[in-house]
Please model this.
Amino acid sequence: MLSRIELQNIIKNSLGCDVTLAIYALEEEHFKVQTDADNDWHFKNNPYHHLPSAKSVIVITVPYALHVQRIKKGQARVASIGINDDYHQVLAKALTDLANIIEQSEGAFDYKIFVDKHGLDDKKMATLSGMGYVAKNQLLMTNNGTVINIGYLLTSLDIPTSRAGVDLNACESCSKCVDACPTGALDSGRLNLEKCRAFINQKKGVLNMREVISMGDWLYGCDICQYACPKNKVEICKRPPLIVKDFLTISKATFKRDYADRSYSYLGLTILRRNAMIVLYNQFGVEALKPYEDVFKRSPMLWQQYCLLKSENKDDTSIE
Model:
């Protein structure tokens, strides 16, 4: 079997950037099945549910650029993860290439690719493989900070654990991410999803007014806690910012054509229109939404959201 370093170099060449790779031989004690476990629990927690022949995991972490965006009213912010090509597609292709190369060396084997949205807990797999630990902002802290994407191959290969080294004391007494969070989502020492902007703007359905105000001008995700982390490097974004009204006027066909390679495209145009509506509301007030009433009427959810915003008197309570 190729060594960890050899595998790491293969995937570095495939992606053309810095990559860390580790191997974890599955231990059943880390995946104990609850007595009342249903199918949803198994989907999220049990690797053998996804691959009955599973014996090992090959995990990669890939850093990406953390961008600060300078915007004006009428423009929107997106998390840095949404600025470049969709990492789901990029990492999945790299892991597929890696699996093909391993097959050439070891023969056919069973495997399944995971990149963020395919069931199991990515951070758990990464921590078990020695990639890092869960930081105070509840993201994976690695030697490259928290600005990384995680992907892995769940395999039937019987290979020993080979962990990546990581500094386990990077957070120490630092609480800058906790202090920086504009909605207080990290105050309890855990991530309060109901307060987390990145969770809120990816939710389905109508958002309440607390959630509306907490979104500020972020169309997708949030990077505030990552900006605050001393381990992360921050750059000024050179790409032009998104124009909010574009999401209210674009056709579904054009959206699929122009945004299919963005990580936020999975939300679909209706949710992004809701978010665009809220960003305009937070920036200009409800009057700015009137030209788009016909668009909102096409979706019961969008119309309900619009009616809620109309029923509220907006105070100047914007959040960074």
The first strand starts at residue 20 and ends at 25.
